[in-house]
Amino acid sequence: MRIAFYAPLKSPDHPVPSGDRQMARMLIEALRLCGHEPQIASTLRAFSREASDAAYSHLLREADEEIARLRRMWAEEGPPDAWFCYHPYYKAPDLIGPALAAEFSIPYVTAESSYSSRRNEGARKLAQDAVGDGARQAAVNICFTERDRKGLEAAIPDGRYAMLAPFIDVRRFQGTPKAKSSDARLIAVAMMRPGDKMDSYQMLAAALRLVVDIPWTLTIVGDGPSRAEVQEAFAGLPARRLDWVGEHAPETVANLLFGSDLYVWPGCGEAYGLSYLEAQAAGLPVVAQATAGVPEVVRNGETGALTAAGDVDAFAEAIRRLLGDAALRAELGNRARRFVLEERSLTAAAERLQVIFNAFARRSG
User: Fold this and answer.
1) In percent, how much of the chain has pLDDT > 90?
2) Choosing a second label site near 224 at 20 to 30 A (CA), which of 136, 241, 249, 362?
3) What pLDDT was estimated at residue 6?
4) What whole-number distance in Å separates Cα of residue 321 and Cα of residue 328?
5) Taking the model in full, what pTM does it have?
6) What is the domain range of residue 338?
């Protein structure tokens, strides 16, 4: 199938790295592994940080221009066999695909669509209505977490839904992992920006202050506009314990993970967190919170430890327990690696995606 791919939040071609961009790229690769031919239909960014009628009206005009452009192109070249929209939500609705899919009678598919009834006001309601209409129209809404599926089903009970577990490209994590040391090397990989990421950095710093009596070092991989605030959050901890390495290419991040012992990241508000899967692929157990979509990618007691949301003491205690038990770290790390390599790989995702397409999204006629 020829598939028009669109990510309204952040195009796969966007210059700024993020989990959204990474997942969009992996979905394209998974579709290719299925034998499909995905092409980016539009790079229009429909993201609105703040809600306003003026901003939404401007976005509608831009979307109309894209619809007209694609209509002309498809009239000459023929339409694709399906439209695939990744991650439409109230801040980044798909204002292009549903209209074109209806006009050209092709299946409309969403992945990681989400709906929050708390956003049904003002300009946000207009955007969310578009998300809801798209989910209702969709041949299938592919959900990555039970949390998202339940939210969509509650709002749109007559929609069609299928599950696809979060996944990563495991090729960087093949081969035999390096033997873990007894040095207690912690690592966290995350962008430095306001909001949930900053909340996680602050919680991590608070927890580490509670375990400063035991030996450890922390490698912090990431950068961003809140770098100064993140560094301030860790003020007071011994400088020799912290290794600020900045942003790195994926291949280098994999090497840094392989050279570490424990992945520590609270995960405040994480949709699921691809970095957790990457850490586990490198054979690291994870310490995180049992919040949002994190339990979809970390198995408590099997591949890591998940603590109650907001409980800094419990988070610190989980770090202390795993740092003090090398055998337990090794056991959880081995299970974590098998879990990701066997169940959460790009190949496994492609196989599941093909099943979904065969069941829901084959174009008739």
Assistant:
1) 82
2) 241
3) 98
4) 9
5) 0.88
6) 170-343
- Rounded CA-CA distance 172/250 in Å is 8
In a shared domain, residues 280 and 132: no
Clarify whether residues 200 and 336 are in a common domain: yes
Residues 213 and 326 in one domain: yes
For the stretch 7-51, pLDDT in tens is: 999 999 988 878 889 899 999 999 999 999 999 999 999 998 888
Amino acid at 221: V
Q: Is-contact 10 45, C-beta < 8 A? A: yes
Residues 62 and 107 in one domain: yes
Please tell me whether residues 216 and 288 are part of one structural domain. yes
Return the CATH number at 276.
Answer: 3.40.50.2000
Give the per-residue pLDDT at 121: 80
Burial class (CB in 10 A: 0-12, 13-18, 19+), 37: exposed
pLDDT in tens, 319-329: 999 999 999 99
Residues 177 and 321 in one domain: yes
Sign of the dihedral through C-alpha 19, 20, 21, 24:
positive
